[in-house]
Structures are given as C-alpha cells and as structure tokens.
Amino acid sequence: MFPGLNENLKRANIRLDEEAFVKKTLISAVYVGVGLVFIVFLLLAKAVSPLTLVIVLLTSFPLITLFMFFYFFQLPNVKINRIDREINKEIVYAGRFLVVEIESGVTLYDAMKNMSKSYPVVGAYFKLITGKINIGTAMEDAVSEALDLSPSQSLTRILWQISNSLRTGSDIAAPLRTVIETLVKEQQIMVTEYGRKLNPLAMFYMLIAIIVPSLGVTMLTIVSIFAGIKLDLPILLIIAGGIGFMQFMFVAMINSIRPPVEM
Prior knowledge:
mainly alpha; 10 helices
C-alpha cells in the first residue's frame, strides 16, 4: 500500500522497518484520536442530547484517527526535507574542500575521511562510506550504498560523479568542480527568487498582520464605547491570540520559502 516507504525511512534516518513504522503511526493516531474525542465529549456533553453526542463521537473518532494517521505518516518526508536543507547549507563548502584535498595529492579515501570530520551533516554520509571501506567493502560499492541513502539531490550529484569516476577510472577533481559551480549558480538563482518573493510578502505582512489589526482594534474600541458594548478580557485575549497566530503564520511561511543556503 505504501511503495517506497522503506527507502524513505532509510533516507530519513528512521531506524524502523515498514511494518514497525506503520504500526507505530497507527497507534499514535489512535491515541490522539481518543484524546481529541474525549475533548469533544467534554465540550458537547451538556450542549447536545445523548443520542446526538454518541453519533458525533462515533463519526468523529474514525475520521480524526484516519486524518492523524496520514498526518503522522508524513514524518519521513518532513525529516528528509529538513536533512536536505541542512545538506544544502554545507554542500558547496564540503565539495570545495573535497576538490582541494584531491588536487593537493590526498587520496580520495583520506579526502573523504577528512571531510567527514569537518562537516557534520554532509560528512556523515562520507563517514558511512569510509566505514564501509574499512570493513572490506569496495569503494565503488560503498559510494553506491551512500547514493541509495542520500536525501538530497545536491549530494546525490556529487556522489554520482564520484561513483562514475571510480567506474571509468577518470579524473575526479575536474568533474566535481563543475558540479560545484553548477550548485553555486543554482543557489544564486534561489537567493534571487527569494528576494523577489520577499518584497511583496513584506508588504502583505505589513498590511494584514500590522495595519489592519491595529486599525481594527482601534475602531472596535471606538464603536464599543459609542454602542455601549462591553469588551471583556476573554474577547481581548481571543483577538490578541488571533493576531499573534496570524503573525506566527507569516513568519513560518517566510521561513519555509527561505532557500537552504548558508549566506
């Protein structure tokens, strides 16, 4: 039912097999479903008839559980995306380090070993390669295994170039330098596009999250005074919470579109 799940678990560094992950996800969804249904029961216990309450609970529990199951099921993809962003912050510097080491006369094995000590995120995959080599695995096979675990397209391109050079016996440094230059250009394009998106988002944020709430609260206060409407503390707290949630969503949206580049 879930093709590719095992590969995604490995790329996300989740040490569970497919059956264990699905079982754990289903159990978590059931727990959350029971908790939310209990909250619904407390909220509606005195507001509706017992028959209506039973129907609502019996209907909401499977829907909530199903929704939470597919929500928790996205955990591998979320972790893969996070690791991908972390890799992209280091990949250019780590790649240049590898090229400099190789051009300085250091063997590929020692260059990968040195890089694994200098770059924690990208280096973890090269540490895996050197560890496989230490136990007798051929370097080409070790690189291929790391390719299967790579959650980042940028890292995959570098590993593929190394694997291709090992198979053909060609020079490694020059093709790697070309790949890194391409990655740099792609990151520059991403930064430029981010700057173009940021300007209208900043204006939209000023309008929706600052100007409208400020003027809205001011007008609401004036209208309530003339109309004799009493604004209780819970109402003001709800308004403040709504404004805070809106600003949090804007900040989260801006962070989500920020390119994974170390600037």
